[in-house]
Amino acid sequence: MINEFHTKSVEETEAVGKKLALSLDKEKPHFIAMYGDLGVGKTAFVRGLASVLAPSSRVKSPTYTVVNRYDSAPLPLYHLDVYRIDDEDELYSIGFDDYVNTGICVVEWSENIPDSIPCDAIKVSIEKEGENFESRKITIEVR
Fold first, then answer.
1. Is 131 helix (H, G, I), strand (E, B) or coil?
2. Domains along the sequence of the chain with CATH
3. Tens of pLDDT, residues 66-107
4. Does the global pTM surpass 0.90?
5. Are 140 and 3 in contact (CB under 8 A)?
6. H or E element at residue 6
7. Under DSSP, is residue 122 helix (H, G, I), strand (E, B) or coil?
8. Which of 18, 47, 49, 141 is such that its CA lies 20 to 30 A from the CA of 56?
9. Dihedral sign, CA of 110, 111, 117, 122?
């Protein structure tokens, strides 16, 4: 199933993330593969997800830390940024397998790790739309 959303603000982008979080079975691991250019709103989308999955968390981009963990019940929320991951060995050296199998794993820059994305991943693409700097088209593909 593919859903498409059009947002005109950061708050609306966060609301789409929240909507996705509300639809998830929070008892089982999920993989959310995020796609989109720099500054398009991937972290804002994750803030919306975390507002439901790990409500007391302060979400920030994991650009320099690679992985941020937000404790939530019953599974942790892992937020990864793989922009600077160069190969499969480096990906797995950060504990990638553990994140995928033990929590809700949201990965920014998933286009950099195409061979490591599980076949049942939820795919989220965000792109700028129109003349308004804040307008976005968000496409969510759930298998």
1. coil
2. 2-141 (3.40.50.300)
3. 899 998 778 899 999 999 888 888 898 988 988 998 999 999
4. yes
5. yes
6. strand 2-7
7. strand
8. 141
9. positive
